[in-house]
Structures are given as C-alpha cells and as structure tokens.
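DATA CLASS: polypeptide
GOAL: derive structure tokens

***
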Amino acid sequence: MYNIKLKIKECGSINELEEFIRDNNIKLVLFGEYHGFVKQIQIQRKILKKVLPKFFLYEMLEENIILNDKNTQRFLSKPNNKDFSSVSTYGQLKPIVNLARSFNLPLIGCDIKNMGVDKNWRENKFSDKEARNITRKRELRQAEIINRYASKGLVFALLGDYHLRKSSLIFPKLRVKKAILV
C-alpha cells in the first residue's frame, strides 16, 4: 500500500477537498489516468471517498454505460482476456468497474467506439492528420459527455492524461468553468 500525499493548490490536504468542492460549487473533477502504466487506483479511491460524485465517467468504457448491479455483474462475468474493444480487454477495465461499484456509482463511457481505431491499430501507421482527426473526434465526444452529466451533478471523469493537456479540445468545449484537475 502506498502512502498517498495529494497536493491541491487551494487545499491543505485531501481532507479539505470535500469542503473546497462544496464551498466553490465545483461540478467536475478531472483525473488524468496513465492507463495501467502506474497504479493509480488507490489515489482514485481516496479522491472518490472525499468527493462523493454523482457520476463516474470513464474514457476506456467508450460508449457503454453500467448503471446498476445487474450490468456490473454481467460485465465482471466476462473473461479477463476477452476483448472489450479493439483497444482493451475486460480484465483491463474491471478494476475501475469494481471501484465505481464500491461507491455505488453509475459508470458512464465518455469516448467513441473502439476509440476511433480498428483491431490492427498497433500495426497501422497513422498520418499526423489522421491521428489529429481521431483525437479531435474523441475529445469532442468526451467534452459532450462531461457537459451532459456535469449539468446534473458532481462528476468524476477518468480520462487518459493526454486528453487533459493544455491544448486539448476538451477545455474550450466545457460549459463547466470550475473544475479540479488531478
């Protein structure tokens, strides 16, 4: 287990996070994920425990939605090595599905099907223009879903950290102007 020390500019500690969000009417917490290269689930769990969002958005779930325990059980019953999409397996997504389940949160995909690529995406060479077009479509979809749910309550959105770069198309499309970026 890691000793997690989280520094948020306006908060002295993670224990102040809940109050900070409430006092500043924050509707969005964006978390930049490394997609398994670094185990971040303990940090995500700690933030979720303090933030208590109404919705959990997850890039890797693409266009799928897991709203209840029946949907969760169906998802978790799939073999770990079975392809979820052209990009990921069920096993890769199950830790986040279980995390959302532990907080009884709806888990909502916020990306496009197969993330805009086919099964042979690793072998394919994309031109810069093709890569930019795929990224553009994905980020516009992510912003659309974030806006839809942030208008209904506090959102915890788990996106690949690349999509949270300064030049991302997500930020200018967000209607929520106050957010926390982790």
The helical segments are 17-23, 41-51, 69-76, 90-102, 128-150, 170-173. The chain is about 35% helix and 15% strand. Strands lie at 28-33, 55-58, 65-66, 107-109, 155-160, 180-181. The longest strand covers residues 28-33.
